Amino acid sequence: QWQSYRVNIDEPVSFQEAEYILNQTANSPFYYFRPVQLHIKEKTAAESNNTATGHRASAPQEQGDLLLTLQGEFLVKIR
């Protein structure tokens, strides 16, 4: 039997976090990742600025070098 777990990530991540997440999507005899969507985009300086005023936002910026969108489903074999 298999159990299903949905994945829906849409957030800024560091290169190391992206590598860790993508390494988990490899298949094994005990689980399978069924991808639906993967999009990785380098975060630009403009995306780090406050778009309404054209100035840097005073609030702390989100951490991350990349904008990662990953959707899919893990199918995990129940032991």
Overall average residue pLDDT: 83
Radius of gyration: 16 Å
How many H/I helical runs?
Answer: 2
Amino-to-carboxy terminus distance: 8 Å
Largest sheet: 3 strands, antiparallel
Trace the largest sheet across and list its strands: 1-3-2
Strand content: over 45%
Shape: elongated
N-to-C SSE string, H for helix and E for strand: EHEHE
Uncertain residue segments? 55-61
Structural class designation: alpha+beta
What share of the residues lie within helices?
Answer: 10-25%
Number of strands: 3
SSE blueprint and pairings:
Layout: E1 2-13, H1 15-24, E2 31-42, H2 45-48, E3 66-77
Antiparallel strand pairs: 1-3, 2-3
Please give a structural write-up:
With 79 residues, the chain is an alpha+beta fold. 18% of the residues lie in helices and 46% in strands. It contains two helices and three strands. It has helices spanning 15-24, 45-48, and strands at residues 2-13, 31-42, 66-77. A three-stranded antiparallel beta sheet has the order 1-3-2. The protein is elongated. The chain starts with a strand and ends with a strand. The relative contact order is 0.43.
Task: Name the features.
three-stranded antiparallel β-sheet, alpha+beta, 18% helix, 79 residues
